[in-house]
Amino acid sequence: MHGNGGLVEGHPYGAVSVPIFQTATFAHPGIGRSTGYDYSRESNPTRHELESVMSTLEEADDSIACTSGMAAIGLCLELFEEGSHILCTEDLYGGTVRMFESIGEKRGVTFSYVDTSDIELVRKSIRKETKALYIETPSNPTMKVTDFAAMREIADEYGLLIIADNTFLTPYFQKPLTLGADLVVHSGTKFLGGHNDVLAGFVCIKGKGLSEKLRYTYKTVGCCLPPFDSFLVLRGIKTLSVRLERQQENAKKIALWLKDRPEVKAVYYTGLPEHPGYEINQKQASGCGSMISFKVDSEKRARKLLESVKLISYAESLGGVESLITYPMLQTHGDVPVETRERLGITEDFLRMSVGIENAEDLIADLEQALAE
Description:
373 residues; alpha/beta; Aspartate Aminotransferase, domain 2; 2 domains; seven-stranded mixed β-sheet; five-stranded mixed β-sheet; 12 strands; transferase activity; PyrdxlP-dep_Trfase_major
């Protein structure tokens, strides 16, 4: 995948790959004059190319490349003043909840969490001080789907911003800004980078006003993605479509196989027609991605599977070419209160798998031997 094209024409010496401008500062041609770049905390040619590509893919007016997905979310929090309230998808990545309830609440911003797939519940949960809806769809890790059109209708009624985390589907499968979101955040570490070798994050923005506010904060706090990391994410994006198609193809095969296993009690995958959000996801996305969660018949079996996989790695993170399996209750959602986790179904028998590009039959064989008594 690529941006609007023509970028190679601006590379020195006709370089096909973007050069890595590994420099902190840029010389001025004269007093009051600039090459367009002055200091890499504010802007850098390698990072600018990456941001331009992301804006094209997400159909954004601007995109900001940050040091991580959490840095991108933190940047968005700077838009809200003390006393603001943000209504969130209840099934959020645990790190997001940790940031909201520690750093966000310390600054006087409050958060509440509801099932955003329940439109009337969202409407009833809005307060006079509510300023934004924060949505993950599909959610992490129980794969609930939120209807963007319904959220946009509510946001317009109450004058709210919509912030959407699009990490799971990426702009290849879903474009939230075209569906009603105002801001899109990504962990670029995941599918966009795609090789488990770089940390990155993005805020993709609709509207000049929001862009100016966020750009000012960005250059002030300095959460800018370094040039080499920008190069790595650009390299990853070149194969985004190829990787995601293969990963989705594998995920569909694995989800269908898991459904028929006696040791598996539930499969959470938006590509299954029986998934409660299947129709909405079909309406607003062009794919279902490669994230699967599932429940096995006991905590003992879950732990054995994690310690028995060979081709699949037991590791945090997701979206890379290598398949990973995670224990959300201990890893991604370890900071979420036990009663909340259990209410959401993130229990001792619950696992999340990020399906990679390996041979699907090899992955199934690995799961089969790991599930065996």
